[in-house]
Each structure stands twice: as C-alpha cells, then as structure tokens.
Amino acid sequence: MQASRSRAARIESVEEASADDDRLVSVAVAYDEPLGPTLERVEEAHAEAEYLDGRASEPLTEAFEAAARALRDVGETPSDGLAVYAGVLDGALETYVFEDPPGRVIEGGFEHGNAFATGPLERGGARDATVGLVVVERGGAALGRLDDDGVTTLETFDSGVPGKTRAGGQSADRFRRRREERKREFFASVGEEAGRVFDAPDAVALGGTHVTVEAFRDGDSLPDRLASRVAGTYAVEHAGERGLDELAARARGDVTDVHVEAREALDTFFERLPDGEVAYGRETVDDALTYGAVERLLVAETVGASARAAYAERVDDEGGDLVVIPTDVAGGERFTEGFDGVGALLRFPVEA
C-alpha cells in the first residue's frame, strides 16, 4: 500500500507503470455509485482466475486479490469517487488507492492489462468547488456542504447555552460566567464536529448573527486546516437547515470566486513558468518583493498564518495582491511540493 506517499508521487508511479504482460488491474468507482457492485466484479474475477488453476497468470491473480482487499478496506464510495490500482511491478505487489482523486470520478470501470488505466487521475476533470457551511447561533448550530448538487445538511445540534438573565448582583455575575463557559464549550464542540465531518472543502463559510459568528471565528474554534479556508462570515438569522440555505445563498459567489481565483492564478503561473516570467521559492520571491517586481503573489495554504500575513502586507505595499492556494485545487499539490508553496507573477524579470 502506498498511502504514506503524496498523491502527486502516487499518480506519477501509476502513470509510469508498465508490464510485459496482463498483470495490472485498474478499478474506478464513480462518485454517485455504491462500491458494492464493483467489489463483487473484482471478487468474481479473482475467483475465476484462481479456478483456472494456472491458465491465468499468478501476478494477475495477486493483483485481483489486492484490488478486492483495497476496496473492502475503503468500505464505501468517497464523495468524489475512488480509483484503485494493483499489480506486480519489478517483482513486488504494489497497490495504489486514491480516495482523494484530483478530479471527480464520473464513470466507473474495471479492467486489466500491461498498463494502468489512468483516466480517473486526469486533473482536467476537477470537480466544482465544495464549500463547508457552518451556522452558529446561541441556540444551536448546523453543518452542511455546498457543491454542484446544492446544499446537503450534515449535522444539526442544540447548544445548551442558557439565555440572558435580568437578575442583578453576584448571582448575575456567576450566571454570566457560567453562560460564557458554556458558550466556549459549545463553540469547541462545533469546531470539533466540523473537523470530523469536513474532509477537505475548497472553502468554509461561517454564518450566524454578527456577534456570535465573529466570536466563534475569533475563538479559534475550528481546526487549523479548516480555519485557513474560511472565505468569510455572513449574517444568518436562523440555525438548522434554513440557516444553511441562507448561508449558501449569501456565500455562494464569494467562495466560488476564491476557488476560481486560485485556479486561474495557478494556470497563469504554470503558463509563464517556461518563459521565466515567474519567481518561486521563498528566497527568490523575497528578492522579487524587495525589487518591487511582484504583480501577484501565490502562497500555499500550508504556509503558516503569520508568514501569509507578512507576505500579504509586503505585496500590498507594492500595489500587488495575494492569492492563497489550497492544496486540493487543480495544480495545488504540485505547486506546494515542487515550488516551496510560494510563487509570484512578475511585472519584470529579476536576475537570480
């Protein structure tokens, strides 16, 4: 199993794999299909290969078995589909499992041959932006997902935070302290649950009354991997499913723009790369900033928040702008791993 390697490295290995005969198995499960029927097809192929007793090659039989085992381990179809590759390469059985394909898997398939079928790993078919929705109100919260299929409610729950009191004196002070403590606990539970139900959304939108939602955001309640993707906070009057619909309506344009902006910036970066019209790597980009040569600064979301803030201030002083690049946007992982997560579109070339 190759799960410990980066997705980009695993894709490269699959694309480059070849064999002299029929021993490489490729399995794809579309995002909107159950996993079970595909698993049955692979298990049947494995059983038939074993029954042939030597007429099917031993490496192919091993590959069928490995693919079936990988499908059983996954259990159910991930939100963007699944791709599994198994085969004997250079004398060793290798299995590559993509529960996070670079593009949504639209069509399932099962085949074997002397090369892997890499269609499900093509980046051109990347899905539309997926947005995590978080509505936080004094009385409750709701978590949902916005994608090209619309709004899906994932979780709703009550807060248990008591309402305000009109009592005075020390009793009121104790009540207020207890209320604040319960609110902090509630915020923490919302953030923890969001970390559980959200995998890797392209952006996160927060909704609620202004005071409550800003307190939630300022309280660092979300896990860092989600907090770094917050596109904004929005006024929402209701909790529950109605609140998620309100939040989606208000945030839809903004969060889509965030995703589109990152993709467009990366496309331009890679287009200009062969002509030397970009800078990349922290030292080179730092020099370009010093010379005032940066028109647009690209910074991966994996770069620390304080460093991103410093970059934003420097490029803003030059009249340029900063784009934060999610790792799972098309080209994002390549940019993060291959270019140190920092790059720039230049106004003029800078001598190295």
TrEMBL record:
UniProt-recorded name of the protein: Eukaryotic peptide chain release factor subunit 1
InterPro entries, sorted: eFR1_2_sf (IPR042226), eRF1_1_sf (IPR024049), eRF1_2 (IPR005141), eRF1_3 (IPR005142), Peptide_chain-rel_eRF1/aRF1 (IPR004403), Ribosomal_eL30-like_sf (IPR029064)
Pfam family, one: eRF1_2
Domain eRF1: 131-250, 261-350
GO MF, one example: translation release factor activity
Region of interest (Disordered), residue spans: 1-20
